[in-house]
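Try this one yourself first.
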C-alpha cells in the first residue's frame, strides 16, 4: 500500500497510528502511507474493498481516513480529549461518550447506519467473553 519506500518494522508498528497518522504531524513516508490508506478507504467500496482500523490512540490518527468507515465500536474513553476526537469525527454526542467511562469489560458503543438502520444514533451493546465460551466448550 505504502509503495514509496520500504522501512524496517519495529514491534510497535502494528499500531494504527503508525500507518494512518494525523496528516498535520506526518512527514515523508508516514504522510504518504496515511494518504494512501485514506484513498483506499474512500475509494475501495466501489471495488468491493473495506477496511478495519483498531486503535487505542485515536487522537493520533488521520480523521479524514476514519470518516470513511461506516461502523464504529467504541470502548472506554478515559481521556476527555479522545472523547472529543470521537465526537467530532463520528458525530456522536459527547454526553453519550461520557457513558463509556462506566463500561465494564465487553461493553461497547456501536454506531452503524448500515448495521442498525439508525443514522447517528449509537447503541450500547455487550459482547460475551469468547474465552469463556471456548472454556465451556472444552469442559463439556
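Now uncover the answer:
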Amino acid at each position: 500500500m505504502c509503495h514509496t519506500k520500504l522501512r524496517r518494522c519495529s514491534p510497535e508498528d502494528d499500531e494504527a497510528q503508525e500507518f494512518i497518522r494525523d496528516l498535520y504531524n506526518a512527514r515523508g513516508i508516514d504522510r504518504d502511507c496515511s494518504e494512501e490508506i485514506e484513498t483506499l478507504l474512500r475509494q475501495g467500496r466501489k471495488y468491493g474493498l473495506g477496511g478495519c482500523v483498531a486503535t487505542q490512540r485515536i487522537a493520533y490518527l488521520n480523521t479524514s481516513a476514519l470518516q470513511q468507515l461506516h461502523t464504529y465500536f467504541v470502548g472506554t474513553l478515559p481521556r476527555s480529549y479522545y472523547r472529543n476526537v470521537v465526537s467530532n469525527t463520528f458525530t456522536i454526542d459527547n454526553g453519550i461518550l461520557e457513558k463509556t467511562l462506566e463500561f465494564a469489560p465487553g461493553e461497547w458503543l456501536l454506531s452503524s447506519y448500515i448495521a442498525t438502520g439508525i443514522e447517528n444514533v449509537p447503541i450500547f451493546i455487550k459482547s460475551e467473553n469468547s474465552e469463556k465460551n471456548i472454556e465451556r466448550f472444552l469442559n463439556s
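Discussion: Confidence is low (pLDDT under 50) at residues 1-11. The two ends are 45 Å apart (CA to CA).
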